[in-house]
Design goal:
Blueprint (H helix, E strand, L loop, with lengths): L7 E6 L2 E6 L5 H6 L13 H4 L2 H22 L9 H21 L9 H20 L5 H4 L2 H4 L16 H19 L3 H7 L5 H13 L2 H29 L17 H5 L8 H9 L2 H23 L18 H42 L18 H12 L4 H22 L5 H22 L6 H5 L1 H4 L5 H10 L2 H19 L1 H31 L13 H12 L1
Antiparallel strand pairs: 1-2
Helix pairs in contact: 3-4, 3-5, 3-23, 4-5, 4-10, 4-11, 8-17, 8-18, 11-23, 13-22, 13-23, 14-21, 14-22, 15-18, 15-21, 17-18, 22-23
Length: 558
C-alpha cells in the first residue's frame, strides 16, 4: 500500500501494537514494486524457460488460434489482439498442469512468468503467420480461381496455385527476415531509446499480474468466464448449423432490418465471433466500419447502380470488374492504399523526428560544465523495477554477429530459392529487397515503440473520437455491413457494461470476448469435418417476401 513518508500505519504483533513509518515497510517504491514480489524467486536461464510443457500448450493453443485467425482473415480481414487470450489460456493450462504434479510430488520446475511469456509469444507468432503469411490475401490472390475473375493478366505466367510444398518453403525463408533484422536493435530500442512499446508493455503487466497471489485468483475467475462463453458460443454455432441446409439459409441470413436492407447487406447475422471482436476492438474501429458500410452500400452503390448503361456497360455481370464490382474493389483499394501511405509516412516521419530528439538530448548531456554555476545534467534515477528488468533483459542476449550471419544466410537462400518458386521474380529484385528491408524494419520497430499518431493528433483530443479511420471504412465497401453491425453490437454490450460496472467490465470483458471468438472459431473445425463426411444440415430456414411466399405456396399446392 503506497503512503506518504510522514504518515504511519499500525501493525499488530502478538497482541502488541506499534507505529511503523513508511520507511519501515520500504516506502512507496517497495510497496508499489512488482519486481520485489518476485525478488526471492529464481529467474531460470533461457534454456530452462523453453520447456516441453510450454511447447505442448503452445502447439495446442496455436492450432485453436490459427482457426480463429483464418476465419476472420477470410471474411473481414480484421484480426483483434489475441495477446490477452493467449497469455490467460497459457497460464490456466500450465498452472493446472503444475498444480497436479505438485500434489503428486512430481513437480521439478515451478511455472514462471518467463515460461508464460514463451507460451504467449509462440501462440501469437504461430497464429500471426496465418494472417501476415498471406493466406487470406496474396497467396490465394495468385491462384487460377481468382485470376479467372479478371480478363487481364490471367495467363500462366501470372498464376501460382497454392500448394503446401512451396508455401511452406516460401514462408520458412521469408519469416526469419524480420527476426534477424530487428534483433541487433533490441538494446538500442528498449534500453538506449527507452521506447515504451505499449502493446507489449500491457501484455507484460498482464502476465506479471497472473503470477501474483491476487492476480492468480482473478485469472481463475477470468478463465471461468471465458469457459462459460466459449461453451455458449460453440453450442450456438452447433444450433445454427441445423438450419443451414442450403444457400442463404439459417440465422446468418436473417433479414433483421427488412429484405431490402438485407439485399444491401445490412443485417445482424448472429455471429458470436464478430460480437466478440467488437468487444475487443476500439469503438472508433467499429464506428468506422459502420460509417463505411452506410456510405457504400447505403448511398454510393445504389447511386452507381442507377448509372448502369451510362457509366459502364449494362452487359457486364454483377461480378465483373468492369461493372459495379470494379467500383467496389478499386475504391476500397484506393482508400486502403491511401491510408497505408499516410501511416507509412507517419511512422517514417516520427522515426526521424524521434531520432533527432534522441541525438539532440544526448549532445546536450555531453556539455561540459564551465565555471562554478554550471552543473552537469544528472541522469534520471532508475527505479528498482527498471534496474531489475534491465539486468534480466541484458542477461541472455543473442549475439549481434549471429543475427548478421543469419540475415545474410537467409538473404542468400532467398535469392537462390525464390526465383524457382515465382518464375517472373529476378534474383536482383530480391537483393534490393534485402538491402532496404532493415531500414523498413527499423522504422516499423521504432514506430511500434511509440504512442500511435493519427489525424486525431492534429485536430486535437476533443474531436479525435469522431474521426473515422479510412482503412476500416474501406473494408465494408466490398464485403457489406453485416459484420460491422455485429461488431457494433459487441461495442454496445461493452459500453453498457462499463456504465454499469467499469471495474468488472475491464477485468472480464476481454475474457468474455475471447470466449465468444474461440467457441465460434472452434466450431468451424467440426462443421468442416461434417461437410467432408457428407453430413448435411436437415433444415433450411429461409426468409421470403409476402409475394414470393405466396408464389411458393401456390407452386407447392399445385
Amino acid at each position: 500500500m503506497a503512503m506518504d513518508r510522514s504518515s504511519s500505519i499500525t501493525k499488530k504483533t502478538d497482541g502488541d501494537e506499534r507505529d511503523l513509518t513508511a520507511e519501515d515497510v520500504g516506502g512507496d517504491e517497495k510497496s508499489a514494486s512488482i519486481e520485489r514480489i518476485f525478488e526471492g524467486k529464481e529467474v531460470p536461464p533461457w534454456q530452462r524457460q523453453l520447456t516441453l510443457r510450454a511447447f505442448v500448450v503452445s502447439f495446442i493453443l496455436a492450432i485453436l488460434f490459427t482457426f480463429i485467425v483464418m476465419k476472420l482473415n477470410l471474411t473481414t480481414g480484421i484480426i483483434p489482439s489475441l495477446n490477452v487470450s493467449a497469455g490467460l489460456l497459457g497460464f490456466f493450462f500450465v498452472k493446472t498442469w503444475t498444480k497436479f504434479l505438485e500434489k503428486s510430488g512430481l513437480l521439478k520446475q515451478p511455472f514462471t512468468r518467463q515460461e508464460n511469456t514463451v507460451i504467449q509469444t509462440c501462440v501469437v507468432a504461430s497464429s500471426g503467420i496465418a494472417f501476415s503469411g498471406g493466406f487470406g490475401s496474396y497467396l490465394f490472390g495468385m491462384s487460377e480461381i481468382v485470376a479467372k475473375q479478371s480478363t487481364e493478366a490471367n495467363d500462366p505466367q501470372n498464376i501460382k496455385d497454392p500448394t503446401l510444398a512451396w508455401m511452406i518453403g516460401f514462408l520458412f525463408v521469408v519469416s526469419f527476415l524480420g527476426l534477424f533484422s530487428v534483433v541487433p536493435l533490441r538494446k538500442i530500442m528498449i534500453i538506449d531509446f527507452k521506447l515504451t512499446y505499449p502493446s507489449g508493455t500491457a501484455t507484460a503487466h498482464l502476465i506479471n499480474s497472473f503470477h501474483t497471489p491476487q492476480g492468480a485468483k482473478l485469472a481463475k475467475k477470468q478463465v471461468r468466464a471465458l469457459g462459460k462463453f466459449f461453451s455458449f458460443s460453440f453450442l450456438w454455432g452447433f444450433f445454427q448449423w441445423f438450419f443451414t441446409a442450403g444457400d442463404d439459409c439459417g440465422f446468418v441470413s436473417f433479414p433483421t432490418f427488412g429484405l431490402q436492407a438485407y439485399a444491401n447487406k445490412f443485417y445482424f447475422d448472429f455471429s458470436a465471433t464478430y460480437v466478440g471482436v467488437g468487444m475487443i476492438c476500439p469503438y472508433i474501429i467499429n464506428v468506422s466500419l459502420l460509417v463505411g458500410a452506410i456510405l457504400s452500400w447505403g448511398i454510393m452503390w445504389p447511386l452507381i447502380l442507377q448509372k448502369k448503361g451510362n457509366w459502364y456497360s449494362a452487359e457486364y455481370s454483377s461480378s465483373s470488374l468492369h461493372g459495379l464490382q470494379g467500383y467496389k474493389v478499386f475504391i476500397a483499394i484506393a482508400m486502403i492504399l491511401g491510408d497505408g501511405l499516410y501511416n507509412f509516412l507517419k511512422v517514417l516521419g516520427r522515426t526521424l523526428f524521434g531520432l533527432y530528439n534522441q541525438l539532440r538530448d544526448k549532445n546536450d548531456n555531453l556539455v561540459l560544465p564551465v565555471g562554478s554555476e554550471s552543473t552537469t545534467p544528472s541522469a534520471p534515477v532508475q527505479s528498482y523495477d527498471d534496474q531489475r528488468r534491465t539486468q534480466l533483459f541484458l542477461k541472455d542476449q543473442i549475439p549481434t554477429w549471429f543475427a548478421v550471419v543469419g540475415y545474410v544466410t537467409i538473404a542468400i537462400i532467398s535469392t537462390a530459392v525464390l526465383p524457382h518458386i515465382f518464375h517472373p521474380l529476378r534474383w536482383y529484385y530480391i537483393v534490393v529487397i534485402y538491402i532496404f528491408a532493415p531500414v523498413l524494419a527499423f522504422c516499423n520497430a521504432y514506430g511500434c515503440g511509440l504512442t500511435d499518431w493519427s489525424l486525431a493528433d492534429v485536430v486535437g483530443p476533443r474531436w479525435a473520437r469522431f474521426i473515422p479511420l479510412p482503412m476500416a471504412m474501406a473494408i465494408p465497401f466490398y464485403l457489406g455491413g453485416y459484420f460491422a453491425i455485429d461488431m457494433c453490437v459487441g461495442s454496445l454490450i461493452l459500453f453498457v457494461w462499463e456504465k454499469l460496472n467499469k471495474a468488472k467490465a475491464d477485468a472480464f470483458g476481454p475474457a468474455v470476448a475471447s470466449g465468444l471468438i474461440c467457441g465460434d472459431g472452434i466450431w468451424t473445425l467440426p462443421s468442416s469435418i461434417l461437410a467432408l463426411a457428407g453430413v448435411n444440415p436437415p433444415i433450411c430456414m429461409k426468409f421470403l417476401s409476402r409475394g414470393a411466399n405466396a408464389r411458393v405456396d401456390k407452386l407447392l399446392g399445385s
